[in-house]
Write a structure and sequence with these properties.
Length: 279
């Protein structure tokens, strides 16, 4: 897929085609992304764990689990958790880590679409997901499924990137995200998250907003790109052009740890953490 005209292309793509792109992207980057997410998102997983008050009696599910970013942490605290994902390669990566860390007795794995969970109504206490909704064509269906599978009084927790309401900023943010990752569907605003959760019968009990500074090269590397790739070159150019006025909401800046060295491009992807309770 070409990266040009990304907004128009993404509006026309079918749910089936988007899932194919997700599988392709996370098969290609299973190791490099898995290494990053499992090592660098421990603090995020621990924060969400506290926000949903996970405990030893809880049965839980981690939707679109990827390399087990949440599931590997939650397994240390809950009675049992199932990690579900659409991509076989990333689940193999997650299961390998779970085996190395001695977590397989409390952690199960299954191929599954987050928009149609193979779980009974009200069968769990907690449903969580991280950085998945911007890859999904109908994120409201995922939130509805999370609400469906938990008991009344059960908790839902999610982490995802968030964008401002300004349509111009959102458009440039989307263009850069989609160049970097062709499986990127769209990022949501804070208001959209709240509306979807309310429509699913969930009452928000806690929210946090955290900035996640990243070296631009690492951000692109984790997505599978090299400096010589056209996607890398185009995304970097757009990112630099957005510095004045922060036109894409990535807060880009040049920093140098070595006064004699060339400054490096850094960005920050705002992350929204939400915990909610089923009414």
């Amino acid at each position: 897929m070409k990266s040009g005209n990304s907004s128009a292309n993404q509006e026309k793509i079918s749910d089936h085609a988007l899932k194919d792109l997700v599988r392709a992207r996370f098969t290609k980057t299973a190791e490099v992304f898995g290494n990053y997410a499992v090592a660098q998102r421990v603090e995020a997983a621990e924060l969400l764990l506290r926000m949903v008050s996970a405990g030893p009696d809880d049965l839980a599910v981690d939707l679109a689990s990827g390399p087990g970013t949440l599931a590997l942490r939650f397994a240390r605290y809950v009675r049992w958790i199932c990690a579900l994902d659409l991509t076989p390669a990333i689940l193999v990566r997650a299961r390998s880590t779970a085996a190395q860390e001695g977590l397989l007795k409390k952690l199960a794995f299954a191929l599954s679409d987050a928009q149609a969970l193979p779980l009974a109504d009200g069968s769990l206490n907690i449903a969580v997901t991280s950085y998945s909704l911007h890859h999904i064509s109908e994120p409201s269906r995922v939130i509805n499924e999370m609400a469906r599978v938990i008991k009344p009084g059960g908790r839902v927790g999610l982490i995802d990137i968030v964008v401002p309401e300004d349509p111009v900023v959102r458009a440039l943010n989307h263009r850069i995200e989609h160049i970097r990752d062709h499986s990127h569907s769209r990022s949501l605003t804070h208001r959209e998250f709240e509306e979807m959760m309310g429509a699913a019968g969930l009452r928000i009990i806690a929210t946090e907003m955290r900035e996640h500074p990243r070296n631009f090269d690492n951000w692109m590397h984790v997505a599978g790109w090299k400096r010589t790739d056209p996607e890398y070159i185009e995304a970097r150019g757009l990112m630099i052009s957005s510095i004045g006025g922060d036109g894409a909401n990535f807060h880009p800046r040049f920093e140098s740890s070595d006064p004699a060295g060339e400054p490096e491009l850094y960005i920050s992807n705002p992350g929204l953490y939400i915990a909610a309770e089923k009414m």
